Amino acid sequence: MAELSAEEVMDVNILLAMNKCMGEMAHTLQYKHTQQVKQRIKHVVRTVDLYEREIDKILRRSIGSQEAVESIYDSIMDLILEAKEIALKNYNNGNTTPDERKNDDSSPKKT
């Protein structure tokens, strides 16, 4: 593997942080999905975890790099939670498009 530039290392750190965010969001929805969908989500998470281990081996990432991933993860999760609050507030206030309202089925159902 060619040596990565500082910008490329940052891209890898962002990718790893986003995977952690996806894993956390998927975990919170695990009881809402059908078994087939859960398996697909788990497969994606496992694949990116394998990628992270490979990157750790190749780059011999330092503790500072892992701390960078955690910092990026915290920032992304804060943004996701803020966006979720705003989206729910807009939805509850009727600030959505007619298509979003028409396609909404408020009865809980598994996807």
Task: Characterise this structure.
With 111 residues, the protein is mainly alpha-helical. The protein has one domain (10-94). 76% of the residues lie in helices and 0% in strands. It has helices at 6-28, 35-59, 63-92, 98-103. Helix 1 crosses helix 3. The longest helix has 30 residues, at 63-92. The radius of gyration is 18 Å and the shape is globular. The model has no long low-confidence stretch (mean pLDDT 78).
SS class:
mainly alpha
Low-confidence stretches: none
**Number of distinct beta strands:** 0
Whole-number mean pLDDT: 78
The main sheet comes to: none
Number of domains: 1
Concise structural overview:
By secondary structure, the chain is mainly alpha-helical. The protein has one domain (10-94).
